[in-house]
Amino acid sequence: MEQSSKKLATSYGLYLGISFVVILALAYAFDLSLFTKWWFGIGLITFGIVLAAMATSKAKKLSSSLFSFKNAFGTYFLTIVIGTFISLVFNIILFNVIDPQAAETLTELTIETSRKMMESFGAPESQINEALQTMQDENQYSAINQLKGYAFQLIMYAVIGLIVALVIREKDTTNA
Predict the structure, then answer these.
(1) Quick check: is 106 in a domain?
(2) pTM of the prediction?
(3) Which UniProt keywords apply (predicted)?
């Protein structure tokens, strides 16, 4: 990956991370239940993908040589890694240092939401109780569990990044 692409991806990654922190801090301050809404999570993921794709597209325009799949994916993924890592650090500090009570409140809200969803799908009461007990026993907001979630999140972003890189890359026409 070219040095200019790395610099651009780093800048966009910082913008993404700062944006995530601001959005999450506002959600925390105004309505903690936003963290349990599916559309809130999808919105954050979409925002990350769009910003990373913008970074990749801009890197392509600034590239002085052939913008390969490797360069496109590298720019996209570096942007995502930096942005989501900043968000991860913020979440760990928020829910484990600043306000551990918020993590407990979110767990309760998540359990309520899950119960309603499982009941609407017609799940048996025993299965619902078992799933909710598992949620109650495991602290989703512990640093270890957030790191596990981060790893899965990076895998999901990487798969999407492969598609973005395929679309944005330049094809070598000299061998055609």
Answers:
(1) yes
(2) 0.88
(3) Membrane, Transmembrane, Transmembrane helix
